[in-house]
Amino acid sequence: MLIEQACRAGDVAPSSIGYFEAHGTGTAAGDPVEAVAIGEVLGESTETQWMGSVKSSFGHTEAAAGVAGVIKATLCLQQGLIPPNLHFEKPNPRIQFDKLPIRVPTESVPFPERENPRRAGVNSFGFGGTNAHAILEQGPDPKTDETVFEEGQVLLPLSARNAEALRSLAESYADLLEKPDAPALPAVCRAASRNRDHHPMRTFVVAGNVSEAVEKLRSLSADPARVTRPEIAFVYSGMGPQWWGWDVNSSRRNRSSRTWSPPATPCSPAMACRSPTNYGGQKPSRG
């Protein structure tokens, strides 16, 4: 059976899976077969195993149905919560829930906590008969800011639309770091690097502790370097003969252009092969 094969491949016991995201198309024949299959894999487990389907929320997404189930199962693992299965009011009479170790949540329920990390199984069945089952496992707890960063200096990037705004931003960061309940310096640096927009006027501060960072932020007086991003374009000319010397003409018209040409490939002298950049825009003669 597919679910058993996935469990063997992942070296996990079926009973360790706390939630099954079913394909659950709502068909009279398909749902009972799927529910019985899950129940048979679990055997006589005494643990509560929950089963639901994201299709009850927004229907069948066809080609995206599998990934929709994976997203829901991932959120269940992350939040430690299983949402209710919408519109589930009357169980399918062809599914004998009283004889199966599975339940369908009608309200939000905590994810079952066991000795192993949280695990969820996801079913996805294709129109063409391609069936898949994925087992997802809870990731490790995110580390705190104090353990994510090793001891040493950190870099705080600063950027704004003009120099005055940049100096004002530096003062704001200094005020923030001096507060009694200020976040850790590495956390501030990480947020400034990853979560803020980066503008043309930029500078940075490197510090090993909060007091050093505040001192450098307060004394920031040198004009920050203005960084402008050049426009980058890529031209893929296929085999090359379509545009002989295209990079030479581009360089002549635009000084800021930067082009790259592959090195010439050795070939028979009779073919007189040369790099396209040697032709100056003229098609070569062939001997």
What does this structure look like?
The longest helix has 15 residues, at about 65-80. Helix content is about 30%, strand content about 15%. It has 2 domains: about 1-135, 3-Layer(aba) Sandwich (Peroxisomal Thiolase, Chain A, domain 1); about 155-220, Alpha-Beta Plaits (2-Layer Sandwich), CATH 3.30.70.3290. The protein has 9 helices and 10 strands. The protein is of the alpha/beta class. Strand 6 and strand 7 form a beta hairpin.
Shape: elongated
Put simply, the count of helices is 9
- The fold-level CATH name of the largest domain is Peroxisomal Thiolase, Chain A, domain 1
Helix content: 25-40%
**pLDDT averaged over residues:** 79
Protein name: Ketosynthase family 3 (KS3) domain-containing protein
GO biological process, one term: fatty acid biosynthetic process
Region (Disordered): 254-287
Keywords: Phosphopantetheine, Phosphoprotein
